Amino acid sequence: MRPFTYTRVDDVATASAAVTTDAVARAVQGPGDTAFIAGGTTQLDLMRDGVWSPDALVDISRLPLNDVELDDGVLVVGASVTMADLARHPEVVRCAVLRDSLLLAASPQLRTMATIGGNVLQRTRCRYYRDPTVTQCNKREPGSGCAAVEGTARTHAVLGVDAGCIALHASDLAVALVALDAQVRLHGPGGRRTIPVTDLHVRADDDPSRDNVLGVGELITHLEIPVPDARSGYLKVRDRASYEFALTSAAVVARVEDGVLAHVGIGLGGVGSVPWRARRAEEVLRGQRASMALFEEAAAAELADAFTVTGTDFKPELARRTLVRQLRDVTEVTA
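^ that's the sequence the OP posted. Answer follows.
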């Protein structure tokens, strides 16, 4: 790990200005990187591995962003709230899809450190991206290729990818957030803006070198999470029962009225270069009478255009089964 400067700030405006001013200076002086750090559970790993070597870090862990409030049916969560604290909130305990996406992630120790904002923005766990000796990585070095396409790719993505990059977005929480129609509040040099979580991340087949749409000096201040008037659940399929990333996962929010799907929101994990909103499946399901046959049709439609390589060819079928099972469990439909 190479030397870097460290600054601690205590308000959002100062934090944004610190990164923005530093970035402008470094653009003139030469290559460099300045970034925010809070829990640091991903960033410190990247720094130790030599994948990411920032010149400066701005510590935002003490910003006044650790509040959780219910505002007219919307849970407003500060970006500095830890995963463990959010999982204990009474409204979250009652919301199965949100609660389980938190409790099935990482380990108890990491959930105590990791912040909500950091979890949503976490970097890919692609083994090739995280190995600086691998030269073919379009995410680290645009135009260099993708070693994962011809390498061991079992834990990689099949949606929102192409031969240029099959890196996976690993957040469990973000999968639940897209199913819940959550939004993120951002603050930066240009002021404040609010965008859907579905617009926060950049697909690998659009631009593998970018993870998200945040500008220089822009940070997440809060998440807005609608509390659903519906049943929900999060199913995570993985190689072992704890401390493991998803091979596939499904977050489902559904309300059935007189046997008809009046509302449905679906997120898929373990398969996308971004937290995957299953819009094709939702279109098939919405307004239709719930049945196992309908669930099969919807899941097949969502995975129809999956891009697979040797090692990920099992994922579309596993994801299809994961989604069908979770739709069945949330709607309590068996026929």
